[in-house]
Amino acid sequence: MKKRIYTLDRREFLKLGGTAALLAATGGLPLRVFAQGGRTFVVVSHAVHQTVATTGGGGDIVAPWLAEQGIASVDWRTAGIPQVHETLFREASLNQTNLDVGYILNTHLFPRIATLFDPLDPYLAENPIEDFGDFFPGMIDSLTIDGQLYGVPVRHSTSGLHWNQAYFEERGIPGPPETMEQVAEYARQLTFTRSDGQPVYGFVIPGSGQMHANTTDIARAWNGDFITTSYDVVCAEPPMVKALTMLRDLFVEGVLPASLIAIANTDLDTWMQTGRAAMCVGGMGRNRIYNDATASQFPGQIETMAIPVAEELVGQFEVAPIKTEYWSMVIPKASRQKDLSWDFIQELSTKRAHLAMALNGNGPTRASTYDEPEFNSRLPYAEAEKKALAVARVPLPAFDRSAEAADVITEHVQAAILGAMTPQRAMDRLALRLEGLLPG
Amino acid sequence: MLGRRAHENALRWLLLAVVIFWSAAPITLVVVSSFKPSHRIFEFPPTLIFTPIVSHYVTLFRQWPEFATTLVNSAIVTLGAGALTLLVSIPAAYAYSRYSSRLLTWSAFGMLAVRMFPPIVITLPLYPIIRALNLQDTHLVLILLYSTFFVSLATWVMKAFIDEVPRELDESAKLDGCNVLQLLAWIILPLSRHGIVASVVFVVVYAWKEFLFAFLFTTSAARTAPAIISEMLGSVTGVAWGPLLAAATVQLVPLLVFVLLVQQFLVKGLTIGSTKG
Amino acid sequence: MVVLGPARERREARSARWARLVPYLLIAPVQLLLLLVLVFPSIAAAGMAFFRSSFGIDATWVGLDNFRYVFDDYRFWGALRNTVVFVNVVVYLEIFLGLAIAVLLATQFRLQRLWISIIIAPYAVSAVIAVLMWKFILEPDTGFVNYLLGLLGMERILWTVIPWHAFAVVVLLEVWLNTPFTFLILYAAVMGVSQELYEAARIDGARGFQLFRFITLPSVMPAILVALMFRYIFAFRTFEVVWIMTQGGPLGSTDLLSIYLFRNGFRYYDFGVAAATALVMVVVTAILASYYLWTLYRTMVRDAR
């Protein structure tokens, strides 16, 4: 009896124990090798970057580069804005990463973070980008920290007002709004239920995540801000409070949808395409997505204009000094295919590439692209964008705790719109918080 | 009298039905809906009888080819964690069962006290350490982490089972010339093999389900299913429910089957683990 | 004839010394694992709380600054308050449900094993899947629950927008996921109550609810306390469900201490502040676990002579 237990279980035990120990010891390494196959190029970015680089009227500018380099594909790791930066910073802080290029928003590139990325001057010296002076100097300036350039700007997103012309005609509104007050007025008229039962909301802004940026757009009609570029906290001043009051009123009246704070930027695409929203504020480049014949129910009928100022600022500004944000491409210090990374950046930075991406709905960071007739004629909003760019500024200056500040701002803005407290009180409290978060 | 009994009986069954619905409905809904064509996923009332389609599964693996890899990773990490847990717990359990000393008692106390640490606390110091050791994105790091949080319980459960094995067998084996390891392998373990299952069950379930460590310490090569499903949940334009439900089903069903098979061991392990031992 | 000489005695003494080491060698792997992965990092985390550390700067000693920041932070107090409410609501709901279901199942049904299997099923569901599941069910416009509520003319559950709805949903998820745990413990306890006690009580004229109140409940109370304590400790740690579902929103209504810690550590990359929060969490956990630890000490160390 004993002998049987010895032999039977000895074999079984050894077998089990052996494989288990082997697996545990190697950490599954043999199996892991099967997972990768072939050379890849990894990019972390927002979904929109992949879109403008690969689809649309301007064509796919990445495919020929891939063919040239002999790489199978680009592994685009796309996610929402906070997640993109989280992933980028995490990967960049490793000793080694398989991430090759990252896209970073200007608000997230403050001096401390820059240490995670390679300075690009050496790359520029060896393999220059054509006509580098063509890039908007303001952007290059803020990408230069301690005399070194850390990123190449690739996309700017400057906000505009998108309006559904078909609805305007249907509701008997003669033309686009000329002041921010008219935007609110028209929005009220544009809130109705369609003949097919679909409710239409006159005005929608994405209320989740980037609320601090989206609210700034509205506030700029009064030239308002949360924090100025000289780090003054002005959220409790009349301009911002007026903007919030307008949003709150529209929310109460049902002109802004009840699910507002759950709507993300990308959800808004669907809202405009299906006609659930009559007007919205967002990056001008989205005009192409809203008018996309394959997805939109209103192809060619969504117009884009520069955001109008409030009545009291008419004459002072031609258009509202709305927010512009721009994305740059960076190379993490820990990346392993740096020559390839720079090559990719170079490729996407050529004049030709910028024109192509612009035709795909991108906001080009090269001044010359705006002079291209192809761009001018094909994109109805080119003129408006140029006007807006002339006066646009960043929504929030970059500082150490700006990520936290953005979250805190979003919380207070949502509280004001949902009615948890009055706009003035929300902004008063916000001012206190922000003072605590600013440096010095 | 009979009427009242029948009344009570009906009430019992009604309550049971409510409880069963509460436990099973969400799971059933997800699994069943994963086989429905998109336009019928949200139909109300939901039907259980229809012709199933697998297109969502196809889309899932086509649009997210990484998903298959993450499943394999989950499997590796789960098996590895189970193996490592057993490897370190069984000898310790034997020691605690057969020997006693002040040092042993204190170490046992320490082992159980340490269960109280919230896992999230060690993510902070481990973050740079794991990077420095280049263990980032490896199966090993997850295997180590998962085992650590369950070795105490595993040891304790195993000890309870080994306690049941009469010491006389130890003696006679030693007289036969066995050393400790042989004794363990050929006498103790076969007689306490239910203990093996009971002690490893918890770490297996945990490892398959775990999200926090997988999310923080893996990125692609060793990414596990829960981490990637959370990405799928939070990503892109709207939510494509079909493939998501398929992903949920694929991740859920194996563990569900496992839990159902080992439920007795779960109960035994829980009872032992929650008494002071 | 065997001659016992000094050589053999020395050999025997050596093997006896070696034999004494055996138990410590056997427990060495476990203890090593715990020390390296759990204990030392925890001490390190405690230490980190006194430094300012993040990307791009070297760790600098700042004394109690991180704690000052945390205790000054309105979001910390919000998270703390939410956690206290959350833990209490969740734990008592789970105990109540677990006990109720245990008592119900103790009446023994046909196909008992099947029903128990189904009741345990949520234990196999990971946090991600649970969130996916309930997000699906609670879809604001097309989801089943809201559709049903709409038909009944009631207000929809808008957990992405209405703060207390979000809190309720998160509580619901935690309870749904963890009731199997309390059920199993309490079921074992209820089943362990001796039938004779019930017989004796019935002879004395007790019926139904009285039987429960005077026999079942007192007998099961130790198990309830154990389940209560464990669930307190584990509910306090809740992270995954909340992070995946609401990330602490809307308006910070589902912000828990673990979420606060994670956000400061891994979104703002302020490791010092996160470590300070971690220390707070450990202290609170120690308080919650103090009774358990005390009993453990008593039964294992003090009385086990």
What can you see in these coordinates?
- The complex is a heterotrimer of chains A (440), B (277) and C (305).
- With 440 residues, chain A is of the alpha+beta class.
- The relative contact order of chain A is 0.16.
- The model of chain A is unreliable at 1-13 and 23-37 (pLDDT under 50).
- In chain A, helix 19 (402-418) runs antiparallel to helix 20 (423-437).
- The termini of chain A are far apart.
- Chain A is built from 20 helices and eleven strands.
- In chain B, 76% of the residues lie in helices and 0% in strands.
- The longest helix of chain B is centred in the N-terminal third of the chain and has 33 residues, at 66-98.
- Chain B has a single domain (60-275), classed as MetI-like (MetI-like fold, Orthogonal Bundle).
- With 277 residues, chain B is mainly alpha-helical.
- In chain B, helix 8 (167-175) packs antiparallel against helix 9 (180-191).
- Chain C is mostly helical and 305 residues long.
- Chain C has one domain: MetI-like (MetI-like fold, Orthogonal Bundle).
- Chain C contains twelve helices and two strands; from the N terminus they run H-E-E-H-H-H-H-H-H-H-H-H-H-H.
- A two-stranded antiparallel sheet of chain C has the order 1-2.
- The A-C interface holds A 82, 86, 89-90, 93, 111-116, 208, 258-262, 401, 403-404, 407-408, 411, 414-415, 418, 420, 433, 436 and C 54-57, 72, 74-75, 140, 158, 160-161, 163, 249-252, 263, 266-269.
Set down the secondary structure blueprint.
The complex is a heterotrimer of chains A (about 450), B (about 280) and C (about 300).
Chain A: H1 2-26, H2 29-35, E1 40-45, H3 47-54, H4 62-69, E2 73-78, H5 81-92, E3 101-105, H6 111-114, H7 121-126, H8 137-143, E4 144-145, E5 148-149, E6 152-164, H9 165-170, H10 180-189, E7 192-193, E8 199-200, H11 211-219, H12 238-252, H13 265-274, E9 279-283, H14 287-290, E10 302-305, E11 324-330, H15 338-349, H16 351-359, H17 373-378, H18 382-391, H19 402-418, H20 423-437
Helix pairs in contact in A: 11-12, 11-19, 12-19, 19-20
Chain B: H1 2-33, H2 55-63, H3 66-98, H4 102-113, H5 119-132, H6 139-148, H7 151-163, H8 167-175, H9 180-191, H10 193-209, H11 212-217, H12 225-234, H13 241-261, H14 263-274
Chain C: H1 6-48, E1 51-54, E2 57-61, H2 65-72, H3 74-106, H4 112-120, H5 127-137, H6 144-151, H7 163-191, H8 195-203, H9 208-236, H10 240-245, H11 257-266, H12 271-302
Antiparallel strand pairs in C: 1-2
Helix pairs in contact in C: 1-12, 2-12, 3-7, 3-9, 7-9, 9-12, 11-12
